[in-house]
Amino acid sequence: MPNFPGGFNGEMFFFLMANIGTTIAPWMLFFQQSSVVDKGMAEKDIPWGRVDTWLGAWVTIIVAVFIVVLTGTVLIGVEINDAAQASEALWQTDRYVGAMMAIGLFDAGFLGAICISLASSWAFGEIFGWAHSLNTKIKEAPWFYANYFFTLVTAGLVVLIPGAPLVLITLFVQVVAVTLLPAALVFLILLLNDKPTMGEYCNTLGQNIIGGTIVTTIIFLSTCYGLSALFPHLFQ
User: Fold this and answer.
1) Where are the domains of the chain?
2) Confidence of residue 193 (pLDDT cuts 50, 70, 90)
3) pLDDT class for 67, splitting at 50, 70, 90?
4) Fewer Cβ within 10 Å of end Cβ, the chain: N or C?
5) Rounded (10°) CA dihedral 67, 71, 74, 80
6) Cα–Cα distance for residue pair 178/21, rounded to 1 Å
7) DSSP state, 203?
């Protein structure tokens, strides 16, 4: 039965924020706009861009639901500390299912490393005025590719640290990301409501309600987490 083990406390707010942070993060906003520019998409491509985004979002949700249902059904009572252990446990039940989950985990990590590194490189390129496009050669955009390579190597080195608490590091990064997210979302919503800039693509009332609800929820959870850290028995 769905419930909140331990009640409303700092740990629960921490995991709620981490779940939001792994779904909606600031780097995703920067990656989205930068990738659109780098692909040379024009105004006529906006409808297809929306289809692409919706398709990716729904596929992600469906896969996540299947993973939760599968692991929650097959691995009842099994102590699981990370996704790799879940994959190994599933392998003992059905090697094909375990192999598919392992491949999915590798794909997710590989894709994440590429996308986050690219988002950072694109952002730094815009800030410092470097040439920042995958359509340019390395000689034409040396700082862009250097930053990209440095970010990839750094991420790989962190994973190779012996005994590093990778799960805790991942959760902490997601919580930090969701804490910083409202600042980016507020400016994005303001931009999307700027009629001279957006024209016919200006936000509708429904879109503003959805965006405002997301921002308000994140701010509320961040505040509750901060209060629970300062006053551990406040929500008990």
Assistant:
1) 1-40+166-236
2) very high
3) confident
4) N
5) 160
6) 5
7) P
